[in-house]
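Backbone geometry:
***
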Amino acid sequence: MTAAPGTQGYGENAAALADQYESIAFADVHRDVAHLIPSAPSRIADIGAGSGRDAAALARMGHAVVAAEPTQALRLEGQRRHALPNLEWVDDALPGLDGLRGQGRAFDVIMLTAVWMHLDADERRHGMEALAALLAPRGQILMSLRHGPVPPGRRMFDVSAQETIELAGAHGLFSHHLSEREDMLDRADVRWSFLGLRRG
């Protein structure tokens, strides 16, 4: 599969990036939206799963999790760190998510953690269509957006929560959560938005 444009700068430092990701607990990263994650076993896709920290945590909660990670080095790192029977790793990427869509998958929750702002405007339009197509009835997208300077060697765009909510609305999704908070790596010039988008 051709490398997704937004993955620039990730494969070269996979082990170090995985260590950084794994240094922050799932519960800390997702404290704003933890109450939205179903307690009953559900079908969850983690798009841009990175090291698998979140996917593994969700699998340990009893969910059936698909971790989609297009960067081979990160995917292999994640598979090595998190081998769980209810955690499936796949090579798939936004904006099209053609692999998952081609299999007719449907998910109760789709997680995008620090992923969406790697897509340009056209990719976001295409990507929201793909995400909406993968949502089960009453399904929801839980997404975090990074705001701040672009790190060297990365491809990143300034994407607001409001723009994302409006784009979701065009695909039959509505916002049921929005919060903002500081950076957990203590970068003073970085902040985060957390969104919950649900199919009506």
In short: The beta strands are 43-47, 64-68, 87-90, 107-113, 135-147, 173-182, 191-199. The first strand starts at residue 43 and ends at 47. Residues 5-199 form a domain with the Rossmann fold fold (CATH 3.40.50.150). The helical segments are 14-22, 26-29, 53-60, 72-81, 98-102, 121-134, 161-169.
